[in-house]
Structure formats: C-alpha cells, structure tokens
Amino acid sequence: MKRYKQEIDIQIQAAKRKLLSIEEESKILNAIRKGDINAIEVLVDSHEYVILKILKEMNVDGTRFSQIVSFIKDALKRLARKEIGSREPEEFSKYSYWWIIGAANEFLTKNGK
Question: What is the pLDDT of residues 4-23, one digit of tens each?
C-alpha cells in the first residue's frame, strides 16, 4: 500500500504541471464551443491533477486505478460536451470537481470498492 501511495504522489506531481490558468481554460472552452474536439481532450487532461487528488483522498486501491481514471475522464468529456455552451468558463472547474466525485462513486458502486 505504501508503494501504491508513492506512485500516486508521483502521478499527482506530473499531473499538476498540466493545470491551466483561468485564461487558458477560457480559450479552450471557447474552442470547444466552436466544435474543436481536441480541445475537450486538453480540458479533461488538465483536470487529471484534481482527479488523482480526489481518488487519493477516497483511498481507491491501485488495482483498478487506471480504470476509474478513464471512467472519470469519460464523464468529464460528457460534461464538457453538455455544459460548455451554458456555463461561464470558470464554472466548469467548479462543476467538474463534483462531477469527478460523482463519477468515482458511480464507478465504485457499479464495480465494488
């Protein structure tokens, strides 16, 4: 378990470098509004730090870690496609935090803790 936590910490530090400024996120959200599919990937990847921090706090075990991260990223992509046009750029990050927790709980409920 200790090794797993160390690996998570390394991933968290790597993901932290992908965080976007408000201005960068705003530009990406505008690109998504214009139909740029690649911008959705950039937006979701920029939230990996938050995903990893939340999963660490939830004590998700390492055997399903990549599966749950993938599931959450897919949920964020759905959120981006659904909500981008109706939200201010800074609201996406607020909503994504709760969306991540909801997706993690959904995955764990469906697949067992």
Answer: 566 766 677 767 777 788 88
Query: HEC states along the chain?
Result: CHHHHHHHHHHHHHHHCCCCCHHHHHHHHHHHHCCCHHHHHHHHHHCHHHHHHHHHHCCCCHHHHHHHHHHHHHHHHHHHHHHHHHCCHHHHHHHHHHHHHHHHHHHHHHHCC
Predicted local distance difference test score (pLDDT) of residue 105: 93
Q: Are 6 and 39 in contact (CB under 8 A)?
A: no
pTM of the model: 0.80
What is the number of structural domains in the chain?
1
**Which structural domain range is residue 84 located in?**
2-111
